[in-house]
Specification:
hydrolase, Rossmann fold, 2 domains, acetylation, His_PPase_superfam, EC 2.7.1.105, 36% helix, nucleotide-binding, alpha/beta, 14 strands, 495 residues, 6-stranded mixed β-sheet
């Protein structure tokens, strides 16, 4: 099994961003409701030649602006922040700009289309947010998410002109929902705690917010794939993922957005991550292999069953790798389980079933290379953590779309899953359960100056990286999550 590592959420970053955005759970589903409305609704005429996107003039790697749109309480901010976690982009939420400009929110009257003073404030907030988007993307950012209602063609044309002037790409994500139960649940779960309603009564919040939605419905102009918006790239997400409409996907990043949005759901569910019980190779200090559980490992599996029974986890799916130590841990549960090959431990190649001392003595150069860049280092004939992250993406997608799941996995696999789910922008609540079963410590302390003494080795170049790193990335890629794995064999993590 792999030794200790510090893994940050940036290992999931597919594109370089200047900043990471962090959100608390209270912010996670607060839908923005600010968009310029217009009483002069245009007739649905087709876009003229001057309005068509000049896709051919864009560079392949031009920065992309993701534009959320839809009526309030449709889960736009929820989706935008899930996307942010997935690829570590930055979100510009127009509601934040509006609340900064108008400190005291009074009522739904602020969102009436005939409130000219409020209309002026909201448009100015949008322009300020767009300038921030421009600054961010021009300074090296690759993806920006513009989170607002954007329900009128006037507002969307303003955005389209903005991206054309700055040679950005644009992709719209429209959330459509006509299920009153879903809308009411979203208002009660999210809007009651919104900064717009401090210390407000639940019934008053519901009444005011429903009136706010009515203000937007007066001028709401959905995307029209047949005529007016046929040349735009977008996805419509209908009734929280029951149906989708995808139009003119232009590039890889847009296809990734579609892929991700078609795999998530907004219903709450629990994910339990559990490392397998102690194995015979753990006791011997050997990494990898396919050994069976030790006696203490079998004891851990029995205690895990008691934990599952005690918590009455209904409709729980159990996933394991195809290695014996996870299968034997799950078999004690007495429930059906699924085996996933992609959940197997990181492949140590020629170093499989060796101890760290053996690796240092027989392959000193490899040992030193791994210490210098653990995330990108690939075992000869094996994998790197970067390889493992890419291998695990289908599991991430399935965990996003499933109900309650218990994943019995391995040390390196668990680190990568935790790096994804523990990102603060995810807004996940994490609980750790100690099952109090003795186990060996498989953690090897990360070599740092002044902490771990080791025979000096020459500085060696990083090897086997898929993509080159900037100096900034080299400094930051391994900052973030650091766990004490002395207790890891005894722990379950709950999200």
């Amino acid at each position: 099994m792999a030794d200790g590592v510090t893994v940050s959420s940036s290992v999931w970053r597919h594109y370089e961003c200047m900043k990471a955005v962090r959100f608390s759970m209270s912010e996670y589903q607060q839908d923005d409701t600010d968009s310029t409305s217009s009483s002069d609704a245009r007739k649905p005429e087709a876009r003229g030649q001057e309005k068509k996107c000049s896709w051919a003039s864009y560079m392949t790697n031009s920065p992309t602006m993701i534009v959320m749109m839809g009526l309030p309480a449709r889960g736009k901010t929820y989706m935008s922040k899930k996307l942010t976690r997935y690829l570590n982009w930055i979100v510009f939420n127009l509601g934040v700009y509006r609340r900064d400009a108008v400190k005291a929110y009074k009522s739904y009257d602020f969102f009436r289309h005939d409130n000219k003073e409020a209309m002026k404030i909201r448009k100015q907030c949008a322009l300020v947010a767009l300038e921030d988007v421009k600054m961010y993307l021009n300074e090296g950012g690759q993806i920006a998410v513009f989170d607002a209602t954007n329900t009128t063609r006037e507002r969307r044309d303003l955005i389209i002109n903005f991206v054309h002037e700055n040679s950005f790409k644009v992709f719209f994500v429209e959330s459509v929902c006509d299920d009153p139960e879903v809308i009411a649940a979203n208002i009660l779960e999210v809007k009651v705690s919104s900064p717009d309603y401090p210390e407000a009564h639940r019934e008053r919040v519901m009444d005011d917010f429903l009136k706010r939605i009515e203000c937007y419905q007066v001028t709401y102009q959905p995307l029209d794939p047949e005529e007016y918006d046929k040349d735009l790239s977008f996805i419509k997400v209908m009734n929280v993922g029951r149906r989708f409409l995808v139009n003119r996907v232009q590039d890889y990043i847009q296809s990734k957005i579609v892929y991700y949005l078609m795999n998530i759901h907004v219903h709450s569910h629990s994910i339990y991550l559990c490392r397998h019980g102690e194995s015979e190779h753990n006791v011997q200090g050997r990494i990898g292999g396919d050994s069976e559980l030790s006696p203490r490992g079998r004891q851990f599996a029995r205690v895990l069953r008691e934990f599952v029974e005690e918590h009455k986890l209904s409709d729980l799916k159990v996933w394991t790798s195809q290695l014996r130590r996870t299968i034997q841990t799950a078999e004690e549960l007495g429930v059906p389980y699924e085996q996933w090959k992609i959940l197997n431990e990181i492949d140590a190649g020629v170093c499989e079933e060796m101890t760290y001392e053996m690796i240092q003595n027989t392959l000193p150069e490899e040992f030193a290379l791994r210490d210098q860049d653990k995330y990108h280092y690939r075992y000869p004939g094996g994998e790197s953590y970067q390889d493992l992250v890419q291998r695990l993406e289908p599991v991430i997608m399935e965990l996003e779309r499933q109900g309650n799941v218990l994943v019995v996995c391995h040390q390196a696999v668990m680190r990568c899953l935790l790096a994804y789910f523990l990102d603060k922008s995810a807004g996940c609540k994490v609980e750790m359960f100690h099952l109090n079963v003795e186990a060996v410590n498989t953690h090897r302390e990360r070599p740092m100056q002044g902490k771990v003494k080791r025979e000096s080795a020459p500085q060696l170049l990083r090897r086997n990286s898929y993509t080159p790193l900037s100096s900034h990335d080299q400094d930051s890629v391994c900052e973030g999550i650091n766990f004490d794995y002395s207790d890891e064999l005894n722990n379950c993590f709950h999200f």
